[in-house]
Amino acid sequence: MRTEFAPDDPEVNFYKLMTAVVVPRPIAWVTTLSADGVVNLAPHSFFTVVCAKPPIVMFSSVGKKDTLRNVRATEQFVVNLATAPLIHEVNNSSARFAADESEPANLDIVMEPSIHVSPPRVSASPVSIECTLHSTQELGDSTMVLGNVVAITVEDRVLVEGHPEFSLLEPLARLGKDEWGLPGDVVAIRRPRTPDDIA
Length: 199
Prior knowledge:
Helices cover 16% and strands 35% of the residues. The protein contains five helices and 14 strands.
């Protein structure tokens, strides 16, 4: 037996349904600057890589939030890796601060300069992805933001033989309701190149 949920059913909250079944979702902890220079920091769990050459990432703003307004004004943003040790900072930065209030300042989150873009990065986050705006796409009540990756910085402490190590990164994931996914077991399985490679 299965229960069907229809998008046009007024009794169904499709946002809650989709965020409960499209799991786990990586988190773009996005730093932006307003036109007046106010630092904004907010988590967005509609986030992924969309192109490798050239490198492009995307996040989606549900509604017209400060992050979206700032990206459109300055055409720059930074994605900070949301990690397990920073779970409370990430969660608290989702509160709806006024546009002229800085989340890092109010939450005592230490920031530091980025290399190629004006928005700063979260000092305690081991990875930052510096981006310039590629384009935006309106999709119903949301806006997809595509960013050209101009640099990725990774702390040496999370690198093993020059490559980021999952167990050291400790990335957070968003689930449904108020649930968060913490790093779990990692399994390595070789991908077959051809049908003949299938074990």
